[in-house]
TrEMBL record:
It comes from Calidris pygmaea (Spoon-billed sandpiper). Keywords: Calcium, Cell adhesion, Disulfide bond, EGF-like domain, Extracellular matrix, Glycoprotein, Repeat, Secreted, Signal, Sushi. Belongs to the fibulin family. This is Fibulin 7. CDD domains: CCP (cd00033), EGF_CA (cd00054).
């Protein structure tokens, strides 16, 4: 069945409909252009009025701070919310505030720090009745007659040892004697000394480990000295290997040698004298804030709802870091660096703020800027092991003074029991 002629538009009707649509679009375009012109005009007026307004007051700053005598200062920024940290040289203790922050009223928080000399004798270092004498950054012990050593810790031998000083025959020898000009001359092998009288003399082992412990003697071994008949050897603690020089100890990397027992899902971290199996976890969901693990040592925040301010201010990334350290490491020493990097095609932050935001021993560290895009965590007080310390640092990014994002690094420090 063919369509009815009345169901199709004629050529004239179609042209009229197209002209009508063109007129309608032209009207819409005119109204849109007029709207843009009005918006531009209003923005120009607003810009001009702001430009004529009073200039923004300069950022408040605080008076410059100096390092205390016999101490050091960390931090050179004196603007509001910036921190300055202080430490004392070895032999001195800090009195006052170790950290001061510039306040909005132009004054610093806390008390002015000063470094007071530590009394070396206050810890009673002399043992067995010894008398402590103060010196310049050191002390000396006057020992009773029967004691010796830097801290009066060793018994002094007031008479030559009897020939029966040890029951082990390996530690005694018969002397080698010769008759010269009707006189008997006796001598001992290296590592032994003569004890007793000429008639019943005996070559007794010379305990090098004890001799060289005395004040002024060289340190024979990095860790432990083991006395041997006529000699000695050095030993290292478990988890360390004796080096070719026969005295130094080197840590064994159990992780690299696959000598660990870490289970699947954990990662082996080598430490001084051992290892740790770690498996860092992302924070549990809180409100709109949720995280996903993007690598074994990093979590990233999932996209935030546009209206959730608390979500946008939560850390965008959380990374985990593990640092093995020897005991009593010399300070100050940088331990960790934190830097920013802009994504391709996006403007990077023009301002950064660094800080220590958590941990169980913050007083041993300071966080300071090392250049425009980098901050450093610095150890300023020695750590004695064995112990495990946690410290959390953050980096906040700003663009045109507007907060953009925050990144947190959770650092675990494994301090060895030994200084090597």
């Amino acid at each position: 069945m063919s369509p009815s002629p009345q169901s199709c538009l004629s050529r004239q009707q179609l042209l009229a409909a197209i002209r009508q649509m063109q007129q309608l679009l032209k009207g819409q375009e005119t109204r849109f252009t007029e709207g843009l012109r009005v918006m531009k005009s209003r923005l120009s007026t607003l810009h001009a009025s702001l430009a004529k307004a009073a200039p923004e007051p300069p950022a408040v700053s605080c008076p410059a701070l100096q390092a205390p005598a016999d101490g050091k200062k960390f931090g050179t920024k004196y603007l509001v919310e910036h921190e300055v940290h202080f430490t004392c040289d070895p032999g001195f203790q800090l009195l006052g505030s170790s950290t001061r922050m510039c306040q909005a009223n132009g004054s610093w928080t806390g008390q002015e720090p000063r470094c007071a000399e530590i009394s070396e004798c206050s810890s009673s270092p002399c043992q067995n009745g010894g008398t402590c004498l103060e010196g310049l950054n050191q002390y000396k012990c006057l020992c009773p007659q029967q004691w010796t050593g830097a801290a009066c810790q060793y018994q002094a031998q007031t008479a030559p040892p009897a020939w029966s000083v040890t029951d082990d025959p390996a530690f005694s020898r018969q002397p080698r004697c010769a008759q010269i000009d009707q006189t008997q001359h006796c001598s001992c092998e290296p590592g032994f000394h003569m004890s007793g009288t000429a008639a019943n003399g005996l070559c007794q082992d010379l305990n090098e480990c004890e001799v060289y412990k005395r004040e002024g003697g060289p340190r024979l071994c990095t860790h432990t000295c083991v006395n041997l008949p006529g000699s000695y050897r050095c030993a290292c603690p478990s988890g360390y290997l004796l080096l070719g020089d026969g005295k130094s100890c080197e840590d064994i990397d159990e992780c690299a040698l696959s000598q660990d027992n870490c289970t699947r899902g954990t990662t082996c971290i080598n430490t001084g004298g051992g290892f740790q199996c770690v498996s860092p976890q992302c924070p549990q969901p809180t409100g709109n804030v949720t995280y996903v693990k993007t690598s074994p040592f990093q979590c990233e925040r999932n996209p935030c709802p546009m209206e959730s301010r608390s979500c946008h201010q939560a850390p965008k990334t959380i990374s985990f870091h593990y640092l093995p350290l020897p005991s009593n490491l010399l300070t100050p020493t940088p331990l960790f660096r934190m830097a920013t990097a802009a994504a391709p095609g996006r403007p990077g932050p023009d301002s950064l703020r660094f800080g220590i935001v958590g941990g169980n021993n913050r007083g041993h560290f300071v966080m300071q800027r090392s250049d425009r895009q980098t901050g450093e965590l610095i150890l300023v007080q020695s750590l004695k092991g064995p112990q495990t310390i946690h410290v959390d640092v953050d980096m906040s990014e700003y663009l045109d003074r507007v907060f953009q994002a925050k990144h947190v690094s959770k650092i675990t420090v494994f301090v060895s029991a030994y200084e090597f």
